[in-house]
Design goal:
This protein has 90 residues and is mostly helical. It has two helices and no strands. The protein has one domain. This is DUF4235 domain-containing protein.
Length: 90
């Protein structure tokens, strides 16, 4: 099977995996934030009662978790496509 076909096969899989990764990352972030801060709600950038440090720490943690989950899901999806098609998606 050509690389072009495996790339096409991965596209819909990648989209679905991306949606799932976002949901998983959001859940993981909320749970990690609860443990790390002792607060049930993570701050939003526009929360007037939260300081810059807390806002930026939450954003950095959220970004790191999202990137980690997305990389793991993308890598797993590509490996799955290779198992099905015999080709690594580009």
């Amino acid at each position: 099977m050509s690389g072009k076909v495996s790339k096409l096969a991965y596209k819909p899989v990648g989209i679905l995996l991306g949606i799932g990764a976002g949901a998983v990352a959001g859940f993981v972030f909320k749970e990690v934030w609860k443990v790390a801060s002792g607060d049930d709600d993570a701050p939003n950038a526009t929360d007037e009662d939260r300081g810059w440090g807390e806002i930026l720490a939450a954003a950095a943690l959220q970004g790191a978790i999202f990137a980690l989950v997305k990389a793991a899901v993308d890598r797993g999806g590509a490996a799955g496509v290779r198992k099905l098609t015999g080709q690594w998606p580009d």
